[in-house]
Specification:
- It contains twelve helices and 17 strands.
- It has about 375 residues and is an alpha/beta fold.
- It folds into two domains: about 5-200, Rossmann fold (3-Layer(aba) Sandwich); about 215-374, Four-carbon acid sugar kinase, nucleotide binding domain (Molybdenum Cofactor Biosythetic Enzyme, Chain A, 3-Layer(aba) Sandwich).
- The strands form two sheets. The protein has a 14-stranded mixed sheet, with helices on both faces. Strands 6-7-8 form a three-stranded antiparallel sheet, with no helix packed on it.
- Helix 8 runs parallel beside helix 9 and helix 9 crosses helix 10 (about 310-320).
- The radius of gyration is 20 Å and the shape is globular.
């Protein structure tokens, strides 16, 4: 029986996929179920429903359809990834999972201690602050709707809620649910995927050939509206003597021209989305268009993207149908290889906007080889 996991956006799929990759699995990520098959021996498929910004009813329907497709193929769901700050229609997706897996014991824990997200007394905290009192609650595209896990899951939903302040708590929670007889499913952050992956273990088998990006310039595309994103971009610019290009969604060509000049002169370019929060879809699409132009026409072959929405929009513009997980730079920051129909192999690093500290972009630059090129 083949195995798979489910995520609600691209950065989440990468985060969970990295945990399974570290445990010895070959991980391939897809969005369309038509791209799921055929699998190779030892491969774990991660499916991104891209449902975080959908209305609850539509998100639930998309999750239900994906679950039905997998069941018809005889595939076993091993993990459901949700946002570690509970952004998006989480309650609707939980209900869809519950309806489809009535005989399963379900564990819910969005904690990601390494990123400062913990669960205490059933409440999600971000660095000790209730999530509803943080910037995540004001996310323009997918605001947090609830921070109390019991209310989120519903009193009679059949989910076990567990507190977690550290990685050991997550390991203990998975050990406890796995020790009981019968099927089970863990629902949570990429951090929870780690103990799930280690319990499942690696599988012998050879992966399909993966694309190997050629050396090229490095593009940093900051599509997230989270304030930390801007701090990280400025720190990278200072460290490498680069100018931050502030994109104008009404005139994306200006950023393309400035980015092309930086790529040619310094081997790297930083393009940052505007701070305006009133036009999230236009900003996302303009950032994806800028990134696609700098990759397709100006030679960027190693790309760092913040914000799962921006990363997904960029992948769609480039025609990427699958990604192969290659490793982790730091928690939440994942490397993947892909092959674009027009530009060829690409190395992609994706980070959710609120992850990391001030030097995260600098470390990503080192991992992508900027120090050798700039």
């Amino acid at each position: 029986m083949s195995e798979w996991f489910l995520a609600d956006d691209l950065s989440g799929a990468l985060d969970a996929g990295a945990a399974f990759h570290a445990a010895g699995r070959h991980v391939r990520l897809v969005e369309a179920t038509d791209d799921w098959w055929p699998e190779t021996e030892g491969e774990l498929v991660g499916v991104n429903t891209e449902s975080r910004n959908l209305p609850p009813e539509e998100a639930a329907a998309r999750v239900a359809a994906t679950l039905a497709h997998a069941s018809a193929r005889g595939a076993r769901l091993v993990f459901k990834k949700i946002d570690s700050t509970l952004r998006g229609p989480v309650a609707a997706e939980l209900a869809a999972v519950r309806r489809h897996l009535p005989g399963y014991r379900l564990l819910l824990c969005p904690a990601n201690p390494a990123a400062g997200r913990t669960v205490e007394h059933g409440q999600l905290l971000v660095r000790g602050v209730p999530v509803l009192a943080t910037a995540f609650a004001r996310d323009p595209a997918a605001p947090v709707r609830e921070g109390d896990l019991r209310r989120l899951a519903g009193a009679d939903a059949g989910f076990s809620i567990t507190d977690a302040r550290n990685e050991e708590d997550l390991e203990a929670a998975i050990a406890a649910v796995a020790a009981k007889p019968g099927p089970w499913l863990a629902v949570g952050s990429g951090a929870l995927a780690g103990p799930v992956a280690r319990r499942l273990g690696g599988v012998e088998g050879s992966s399909r050939p993966q694309p190997h990006p050629a050396p090229g310039s490095v593009l940093f595309l900051g599509g997230s509206a989270h304030p930390l994103n801007r701090t990280q971009a400025e720190r990278l610019a200072t460290a490498h003597g680069l100018a931050v290009i502030h994109a104008d969604p009404d005139h994306p060509g200006h950023a393309v021209a400035a980015g092309a000049a930086q790529l040619g002169a310094a081997g790297a370019a930083i393009v940052l989305a505007p701070e305006a929060r009133g036009r999230p879809e236009q900003i996302r699409d303009s950032m994806a268009a800028i990134g696609a132009a700098l990759i397709g026409d100006h030679g960027a072959r190693r790309v760092f993207v913040t914000g799962g929405e921006t990363a997904r929009a960029l992948a769609a513009r480039l025609g990427l149908r699958e990604l192969f997980v290659e490793g982790t730079i730091e928690p939440g920051l994942v490397l993947a290889a892909a092959a674009t129909p027009a530009a060829g192999p690409l190395l992609l690093a994706v980070k959710p906007g609120g992850f990391g500290n001030a030097d995260t972009w600098v470390r990503a630059a080192n991992a992508l080889g900027l120090a050798a090129d700039a």
